[in-house]
Amino acid sequence: xxxxxxxxxxxxxxxxxxxxxxxxxxxxxxxxxxxxxxxxxxxxxxxxxxxxxxxxxxxxxxxxxxxxxxxxxxxxxxxxxxxxxxxxxxxxxxxxxxxxxxxxxxxxxxxxxxxxxxxxxxxx
Length: 124
Prior knowledge:
This protein is mainly β. 0% of the residues lie in helices and 48% in strands. The chain has strands spanning 2-6, 10-12, 17-24, 33-38, 45-50, 57-59, 67-72, 77-82, 91-98, 111-112, 118-123.
């Protein structure tokens, strides 16, 4: 299964966007999904993760109060609602599936099937 993030775009400071993560070649309903971003010249950064049923979520401290991860397994889609966007949120955003139950939810090395990301640009 290959994942694809979409929904990025240009937004003003303080605005909102909702990103979607969908799958091709299968369903993402069976996987823990993580959201990451990568800004130019920076490491890929964990943002949020959600368990297979949606009951378990995790967030990085930098986005905890502004971003919300959710999923609709009937639609095989995971969402990242981003509010109160700041210029420093500008990055390419990716979703990925966790390889297995034992890996670190916050570590990008625990994930695969990254696919292409979606660019979010926050302008001031």
